[in-house]
Design a protein that fits this description.
This is Mobilization protein. It comes from Dyadobacter psychrotolerans. There is one protein chain. The chain has two domains: 43 residues; 111 residues, no CATH class. The protein is mainly α and 182 residues long. It contains six helices and no strands.
Amino acid sequence: MEKKERVKKAGRPKLAENQVRVKVTLMLTPDEIAKLKAEQEGYSIEFTVFCREKLLNRESKILRRPIPEDVKVQMTNILRMAGSVLLLAKNTSSDTVISDEFRDMAAGLKRMVQRADFSINEMVLSQSLIAAIVSLFIKIEKLVNKLDRDSEPVVEIDLLLQKIREKLLPFTDMYNISSDLK
């Protein structure tokens, strides 16, 4: 009996076993769902993705709050203005003299707005990272509090935790992160 040559099927290739998603049913009360949906407001991801990332505690990597709308509008306007200035510098008729300083100023304006956009994104990311670090710090502190308070290593750990708390407090104040650090 002859074996037929297997023809590869068209379409998406099969995922590795550890990448396959499996449907899981989670029972929540309407109040819990409303609370999660209220918390999800402002994120640019779907509710199911938000819940999965929240459940897996991957907030600092995936769940970045977007830039506030008013800041986004202002940055868009400045970028448009910078683009218009660049177009003016490039597309003016050859008999109109445009100085190199004008072209440099237009390009510099665009770079400045792009750097501001990058800085704002970094601030948003650092805010979510600080929240995650504070959460982990509180968990570690609770675990240490369960240890024998009289042993020398625990006393050293307490001192280190106190130093970490002092370093974190300015950031929790800066980002208005309510925490049990105080």
